[in-house]
Amino acid sequence: MKALRAIWRMLRLLGHLLKGLWVVTLQFPRLAPEEQYIRVQAWSQQMLACVGISLRVQGQPPVGGPVMLVANHISWLDIPVMHAARHCCFISKSDVQGWPLIGTLATAAGTLYIERSSRRDAMRMVRTMQEALERHEVLAVFPEGTTGDGRTMLPFHANLLQAAVVANAPVQPVGLRFVDLASGATSFAPSYIGDETLLGSIWRTLSAPAIEAVVTYGEPETPQGRDRRAWALHLQAVVDGLRQQG
Description:
Layout: H1 2-26, H2 33-50, E1 53-58, E2 67-71, H3 78-85, E3 89-93, H4 102-108, E4 112-114, H5 119-134, E5 138-141, H6 162-167, E6 171-180, H7 198-207, E7 211-217, H8 228-242
Parallel strand pairs: 1-7, 2-5, 2-6, 3-4, 3-5
Antiparallel strand pairs: 6-7
């Protein structure tokens, strides 16, 4: 039964991905940015349904920008989960841009790319993020830099907060969690860590019983005199608390 469930969900997911590619190729060029964002949010909600995941939003998502969302990072599903809750422009590692199909969809959703190993590119990205915030965009970053195991969090990198400091924009902490609907316990099926393959993580997620993605928004905040490293430590503690709610 698990295999049949996974195969059915996989077929639905592939069909939905191809539909998304058709939409961004033929329809997006004719749409205003606001209309594109609405389409991305709706597509993300439908994608979660395809893989057997429901969505619960706690707290108040931002009504508009400028604001930078900072969240813990668990899974390849984190981006569509956050898009489903509230469209935002993600900061992602540059190799995602080259992924077949996924890269095209991510770019169409407004993703900004950074070469993590390049200090010069990091500085360029800070300027790009600052300009986006000054245009009143809603940005989203995973300050851990990579996915964790869902049990503990990795330290937050403070450098991405610099754009919010320079643009004088608030930062809103967000906690992500996946829950087994039958037991109410945390589900680690969607996790993607260490030496795991992406396909292995996807298959485990598709094979799992019904899962609920919980997105918990905290209160927006400003540095209040803290340097970015002290602020990053504080935000990490807040996100750690938010992700355990619900």
